[in-house]
């Protein structure tokens, strides 16, 4: 074993996590520990301790006594417990997979995953390079078992309202880039709330408010929208507005926003610079840290098949999500958009996209991974196959139909609706969430959905 791998394994054996009573108390505790010179990291709460929606504070196990002292000396911080992070050994349960005809290097890497070992970049690349039928079977089935262990069989369904396609940025891949000839629109607050009402009627608990980077929607305007959604519907809110200031993130969080999606798109600095000519890699990383520090359930992700992207770059993307403790990781194929500098490039490879989903599940484990709209746009059964590869979320497009064709980050987007999502879930042999109002289905006969397909 390489010296670096040995160090990482020893470090992972010596870690503990602190779980607090709420996000507020978690942030207060994290600040107190930092003041006490404890090195901390905010991570998705490990499986068996809490859900993928919560954040824990990870620190070196040798600091446990000092952490307890600092917490006991502080006032007003409510914490549940400190848990050692114990490794699991799944080799016996995965024996059928490990006995397949695998390359020695691949088998050794998969065995290390089964033992909860920390993978190096070269080992992540080994998994991504799965090619034979047996290796692909082992990869996808191990990811599916990890998904079932970590987040169960239920597929979470969320819905997005793309409320503005104005954007100040000029990203080379994006159909909304400021120099593109696009019919621009902005939805009013009332129009947005009408869309939220439709989502609420479907039974969905989380609305995603997505736009280009559009400063016309000031802090006060976004706060007003958040507060009305909370007051009228009590729904969880994910914001996807691009880069805002730290103070704005803080204000949105205090107003009631629960989640924030800010994709890194490419964790390799050179590739990031190529696709985002007017963005800064370090600023994007800093904003990711801010969002976690402010207590958001944080989303990130990237694209597969970008021009000049390598397998090593994809391994970097996966390890970035692990390092920053991202809760929601959206990865899908690059799809070209008309009118952009990348319009003539080929779409990302479907099989490689599924492999990235699978390896992301194996490496990051207790997180939300969407079977993305991009997968559904690349091939009709894309979302079904994404779910089979380890994903556990589907996002509906609930932008008003008259505006949908003008929100084309990439061309020929599949406007995933409730029926399409439910059909994908059924075909993947997964469970429909209990909160969905199946009376809202338009093309699927509800009588065909039996109790085995639902949870609750």
TrEMBL record:
Gene Ontology molecular function: 4 iron, 4 sulfur cluster binding; metal ion binding; transferase activity
Keyword annotations from UniProtKB, A to Z: 4Fe-4S, Iron, Iron-sulfur, Metal-binding, S-adenosyl-L-methionine
Pfam families cross-referenced by the UniProt entry: Radical_SAM (PF04055), Se_S_carrier (PF11823)
InterPro entries linked: Aldolase_TIM, BATS_dom, Elp3/MiaA/NifB-like_rSAM, FeFe-hyd_HydE_rSAM, HydE/PylB-like, rSAM, rSAM_sf, Se/S_carrier-like
Family annotation (PROSITE patterns): RADICAL_SAM (PS51918)
Cofactors, names only: [2Fe-2S] cluster; [4Fe-4S] cluster
Residue ranges annotated for the Radical SAM core domain, each copy included: 153-372
Protein's GO biological process: sulfur compound biosynthetic process; water-soluble vitamin biosynthetic process
Alphabetized NCBIfam families for the sequence: rSAM_HydE
Protein name: Iron-only hydrogenase maturation rSAM protein HydE
